[in-house]
């Protein structure tokens, strides 16, 4: 009996060793992070490089006819994104019919996809060619150096893309590695049957909130971008503007000292005057139910909610004169993409007239190209002058943390 | 006595699919999680042994989340068992017991997230509860019952979801009590309360412990219900873990929280095993 146990234990040990070895190998041949092994830790995060391989350098030197020929030789391209599966399938079909290159779409949770990209970053060949980038994923992917490029200057209609988003996404300088695909904007969404004269200045908004307790809502900043947009607006209004933050790559403690004014503003109103929601869509849902009359919302979310019948048709979105942040999503070609030429061709297609029209007419988003007018928007053209850019992602991360620390924790 | 030089039993190889599955999907992921909590397996930046993350994880937010998760875990498992016992006892004597049990099992087949939204719809601003209260003129304006800061909504959902599960365990346990033992007690003059106290409770206690432990593990580690119906603050440990990883990219801190969740669960199961052994000895 004892011998049998010994054999079983030996087998278990053997299997564990094999598994650990496999896991160690899966970390990547060049990855210095294997536990128990010698750790050759880099002193700084890896930097973007334009010269990953000789073939990669050649790609940017090719003209578009050569890139197309190379892409056709590669035969397929894999695009990863989160959400909007129907739209990207349609975009892929248009790409396939134009170039005869197979389009593979991978849709997953945002975090899971980005985690996969980061895990594979040191491998010679990854699973995806092109990935969608938005929100909190800009900084970790840029810091990890997962992109090939810079490719923006190579894109045929690159000069027609929104200049702000081409330079900076979510406050992070993208240095030409990321190409804008569509734009989005936050604003105040309201029920016109209950609100005839929406607040335009900060003082008017404060007065409206005081006069209509619990009828103004925004989502928790860690649960949705519209909540982050409102906190940013608060920082702009009560903590001395946003100009001082642009250009910083790290949080300057001196600049955030007076954020206590922001947290105090929320705490003073949290119990009896404002309502916190659990997501961007939760805010819209509560507006639709009549629980709230004025909320912070994304333009595309609001437009889609009306299109799907999730929100009453006469809801109005506007950017108040005190300004609210806007940005957009981009696409990037991975440096370990198995089909680089096809990936570059896909990004070029997404920025073309045809691709941008699809973003506008099928996805119901605001095109990234400034020369293509947006139709799927609730915003008036004159409102767009009040759009303000996001501050660097490090500050955003900081105010999300601080919101929990100084508002939620101290309120309990 | 073992035979000397007994040959290797090739039959053990048949265990590989089962053991391999456990090793790959449970032990390996646990291993990576623990190593990540110690600074290894970083997706970005430096990797290497560090206790820094363990030093950072025990902040006020973590403790609030731990207390909240314990409250939901202990609260829902204990409330469920308290509701479950009389239900099962009454059902034993009810005609159409099987049909009733089948109906009561329904919440078990509804995913937690769907169940959560069902309850939210009931307590929402324009849900049945508020509409009824307004209709009866008890209140003028609907109450905001969602995401209450005490987690009462979450407890309600968890109890709704877990009572049928505990009923399954407890009804088998009560059914297995020999009828002649109860009859003998009756003959000796025991009333229903004495029978429950001196026969049913002691004989079903091990099953009750299992029921409570299993529900605790599920509700303590719950993500779906707490994330949809839970308070805005504190988050459950699972939500905090996700938040740290997704919003802040703090995978190592998330790994520390995951490890703590695992340790808490193992501790509780160990306590359960100790109690069960004591009970066995007492028997």
Describe the structure.
The complex is a heterodimer of chains A (412) and B (283). Chain A is an alpha/beta fold. Helix content of chain A is 42%, strand content 15%. In chain A, strands 1, 2, 3, 6, 7, 8, 9, 10, 11, 12 and 13 form an 11-stranded mixed beta sheet that branches. In chain A, a hairpin with a 2-residue loop joins strand 4 and strand 5 (172-173). Chain A starts with a helix and ends with a helix. Chain B has 283 residues and is mainly α. Chain B has one domain: MetI-like (MetI-like fold), CATH 1.10.3720.10. In chain B, 70% of the residues lie in helices and 0% in strands. The longest helix of chain B is centred in the first third of the chain and has 33 residues, at 60-92. At the A-B interface, helix 1, helix 5, helix 6 and helix 15 of A face helix 1, helix 3 and helix 11 of B.
Features:
heterodimer; A: 412 residues; alpha/beta; D-Maltodextrin-Binding Protein, domain 2; 2 domains; eleven-stranded mixed β-sheet; two-stranded antiparallel sheet; 13 strands; globular; B: 283 residues; mainly alpha; MetI-like fold; flat
Q: Could you give a quick summary of the protein structure above?
A:
Chain A has 412 residues and is α/β, with parallel strands linked by helices. Chain A is built from 15 helices and 13 strands. Chain A is globular.
**Morphology of chain B:** flat
Shape call of chain A = globular
CATH topology of the largest domain in chain A: D-Maltodextrin-Binding Protein, domain 2
Number of domains of chain B: 1
- CATH hierarchy: architecture of chain B: Orthogonal Bundle
Q: What structural category characterises the helix and strand content of chain B?
A: mainly alpha
Q: What count of helical segments of chain A does DSSP give?
A: 15
Q: Would you tell me the overall average pLDDT of chain B?
A: 88
Oligomer: heterodimer
Order of helices and strands of chain A: HHHEHEHEHHEEEHEHHEHEHEEHHEEH
**Mind summarizing the main beta sheet of chain B?**
none
């Amino acid at each position: 009996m004892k011998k049998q146990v010994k054999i079983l234990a030996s087998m278990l040990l053997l299997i564990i060793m094999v598994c650990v070895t496999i896991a160690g190998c899966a970390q990547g041949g060049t990855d210095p992070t294997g536990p128990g092994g010698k750790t050759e830790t880099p002193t700084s995060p890896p930097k973007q490089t334009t010269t990953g391989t000789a073939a990669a350098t050649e790609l940017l030197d090719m003209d578009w006819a050569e890139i197309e020929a190379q892409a056709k030789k590669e035969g397929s391209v894999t695009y990863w994104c989160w959400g909007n599966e129907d739209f990207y399938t349609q975009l892929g079909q248009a790409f396939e019919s134009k170039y005869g290159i197979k389009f593979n779409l991978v849709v997953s949770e945002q975090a899971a996809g980005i985690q996969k990209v980061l895990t594979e970053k040191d491998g010679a060949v990854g699973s995806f060619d092109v990935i969608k980038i938005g929100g909190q994923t800009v900084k970790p992917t840029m810091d990890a150096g997962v992109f090939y490029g810079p490719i923006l200057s190579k894109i045929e209609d690159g000069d027609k893309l929104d200049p702000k988003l081409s330079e900076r996404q979510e406050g992070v300088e993208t240095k030409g590695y990321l190409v804008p695909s569509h734009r989005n904007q936050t604003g105040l969404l309201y029920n016109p049957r209950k609100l005839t004269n929406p607040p335009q200045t900060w003082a008017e908004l404060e007065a409206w909130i005081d006069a209509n307790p619990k009828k103004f809502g925004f989502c928790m900043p860690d649960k949705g971008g519209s909540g982050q947009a409102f906190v940013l607006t608060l920082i702009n209004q009560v903590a001395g503007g946003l100009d001082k933050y642009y250009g910083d790559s790290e949080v300057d403690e001196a600049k955030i000292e007076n954020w206590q004014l922001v947290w105090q503003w929320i705490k003073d109103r949290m119990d009896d005057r404002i309502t916190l929601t659990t997501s961007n869509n939760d805010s819209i849902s509560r507006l639709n139910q009549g629980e709230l009359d004025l909320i912070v919302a994304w333009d595309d979310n609001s437009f889609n909610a009306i299109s799907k019948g999730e929100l009453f048709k006469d809801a109005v979105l506007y950017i108040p004169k005190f300004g609210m942040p806007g940005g957009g999503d981009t696409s990037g070609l991975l440096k370990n993409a198995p089909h680089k030429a096809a990936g570059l061709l896909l990004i070029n297609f997404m920025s073309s007239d045809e691709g941008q029209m699809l973003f506008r007419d099928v996805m119901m988003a605001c095109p990234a190209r400034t020369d293509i007018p947006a139709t799927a928007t609730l915003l008036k053209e004159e409102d767009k002058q009040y759009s303000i850019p996001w501050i660097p992602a490090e500050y955003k991360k900081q105010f999300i943390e601080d919101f929990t620390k100084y508002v939620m924790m101290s309120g309990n | 006595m073992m035979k000397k030089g007994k040959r290797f039993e090739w039959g053990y190889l048949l265990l590989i699919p089962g053991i391999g599955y456990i090793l790959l999907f449970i032990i390996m992921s646990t291993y990576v999680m623990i190593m990540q909590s110690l600074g290894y397996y970083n997706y970005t930046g430096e990797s290497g042994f560090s206790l820094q993350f363990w030093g950072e994880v025990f902040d006020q937010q973590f403790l609030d989340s731990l207390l909240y998760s314990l409250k939901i875990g202990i609260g829902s498992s204990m409330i469920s068992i308290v509701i479950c016992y009389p239900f099962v006892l009454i059902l034993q004597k009810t005609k159409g017991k099987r049909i009733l049990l089948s109906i009561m099992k329904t919440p078990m087949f509804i995913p937690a997230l769907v169940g959560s939204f069902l309850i939210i719809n009931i307590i929402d601003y324009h849900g049945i509860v508020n509409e009824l209260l307004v209709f009866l003129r008890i209140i003028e304006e609907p109450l905001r019952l969602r995401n209450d800061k005490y987690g009462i909504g979450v407890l309600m959902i968890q109890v709704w979801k877990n009572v049928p599960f505990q009923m399954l365990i407890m009804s088998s346990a009560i059914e297995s009590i020999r009828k002649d033992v109860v009859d003998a007690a009756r003959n000796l003059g025991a009333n229903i309360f004495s029978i429950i106290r001196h026969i049913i409770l002691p004989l079903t206690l091990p099953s009750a412990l299992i029921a409570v432990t299993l529900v605790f593990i599920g509700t303590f580690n719950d993500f779906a219900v707490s994330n949809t119906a839970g308070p805005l603050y504190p988050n459950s440990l699972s939500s905090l873990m996700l938040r740290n990883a997704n919003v802040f990219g703090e995978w190592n801190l998330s790994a520390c929280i995951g490890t703590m969740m695992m340790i808490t669960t193992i501790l509780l199961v160990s306590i359960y095993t100790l109690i069960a052994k004591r009970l066995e000895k007492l028997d």
